[in-house]
Request: fold
Amino acid sequence: MKIISVLGSTGSIGTQTLEVVETSQGKIQVQALAAFANISLMEQQIRKFRPKLAVLYDHKAATELKARVKDLPIKILTGMDGLLEVAVSPEVETVVTAVSGSIGLRPTLAALESGKNIALANKETLVAAGELVMATANSNGCLIIPVDSEHSAIFQSLHGDLRTVKKIILTASGGPFWGWDRAKLAAVTPEMALKHPNWNMGAKISIDSATMMNKALEIIEARFLFGVNYENIEVLIHPQSIIHSMIEYIDGSIIAQLGMPDMRLPIQYALSYPLRWDVNFNPLSLAGKNLTFAEPDHHNFPSLNLAYKCGKSGGTLPAVLNAANEVCVHAFLARRIKYLEMYELVEQVCSEHQVSAADNLAKILNADNWAREYCEELIQRRKK
Ligand code: NDP
Ligand code: MG
Reply:
C-alpha cells in the first residue's frame, strides 16, 4: 500500500487524484489533504478518505472546518506552516503537488528534504526553482514523477540512455484560439479563454493554455525533469490531444504515448509507477480518428519564444517569468487587464529583471516577489 498526501485536493487534479485513490482498491491510502479555502468539499473529502491531517490555508476557513469535523480524530491546521506539515507528514511516501502557482515551492522542497517522492502536477514550482528542486531530489534520493500529461508521456517513452535522445517533442492542443490573429485575440474575455476544447481544468492553467504560456512553462518543466537542453525541446501543435508527447531518438525512431485526454491516467501512473494497474478510465479507440499536426504560431502566441529566452538565460529569470504570469492571469480573470496585455506585461517584467543565480530558496523567493510587485505596479500605472 502507498500512503500519500495531496496538496490542492479540492482542485481539478486533486479531485481526480482522489478518484484514482477510490478505484485503487485499497492500494493507496490518504494521510493528509490541503487546500486553500473550500470548506465544504474539504469536509466531504475528510469524511470519505479519513486523513489524519487536513489544512485550509485560509485561517478563517480552517477555523470553520475544525468546528465542522470535531466529531473526527483529525488535526486541522492552516497557513504555510500547515502546508509544510502536510508535505513532511510521517508515513507519507508520495506527496501529490496539485496546488496552482509557486506557492507550492516551499512545501515541495520540504517534502524532498524529508525523503518523500513527488507526484508533480504543480509545474510552476519546477519553472521557478528547477535547479534547486532537482538538486534537492537527487541529494535526498527522491523521485519526481510527472503528472503533467506531456511529461508523463515523455517519462513513459523514455528508455535507456538519455544521450540517445535527439529531441523531446511536446504536443500542444493550441488551446481555444488556435488559428486566431491578434485583431481577434484583442477581444478575448475570461469566459472565452476558460473554455478549453479538450480539457476541463482549473482557471489558471486554462488561461495559460489559451495564451500558450502553459506550453511555455512545460518547456522549462521538461528541461529540468529530463535534463535535456532547450535546443532539443520542440513544440508541435496537435489539436486532438491524443498523442501526449513524443521522443525522437538519434536513429530516427519516434516513441509516443497515446490516450484520451483524461488526467486520471497520468495521475494513476505517477502513483502506480513502476507498476501499471488494471484500471482504464477512458478507453481510446483510434479507428476513425483524424490526428493532425502543425507548427506553432510564434507571431500570435509569443509565449513559447519568451520561455526559450528566459530558460536559456536561466538563473532567477524563469521564476520571474512564472510570477509575472501568475499576476497577469489573475488580473485578466478579474478583468483588470485585457488578454493581449498579459503578453506585454510578462515580457516587460522579464526584460527589466536583473538576473542573478538561483542557487538558494531566498534568492528565488526574492525574484518571485520582485516580479509580483513590479508587475502589479505596471498594471496600476496602465490604469492611470
Ligand atoms: P485548480 O485551480 O483546479 O486547483 C488548485 C488547488 O490548489 C485547489 O485545491 C486550491 O484550493 C488549492 N490551493 C490554491 N492555493 C492554495 C494555497 N495557498 N494553499 C493550499 N491550497 C491551495 O488547479 P488545477 O488542479 O487545474 O492545477 C493544479 C496544478 O496542476 C497547476 O500547477 C497546474 O498547472 C497543474 N496541472 C493541471 C492540469 C489539469 O488538468 N487541471 C494538467 C496538468 C498540470 P481551493 O479549492 O480551496 O481554492
Ligand atoms: Mg500539460
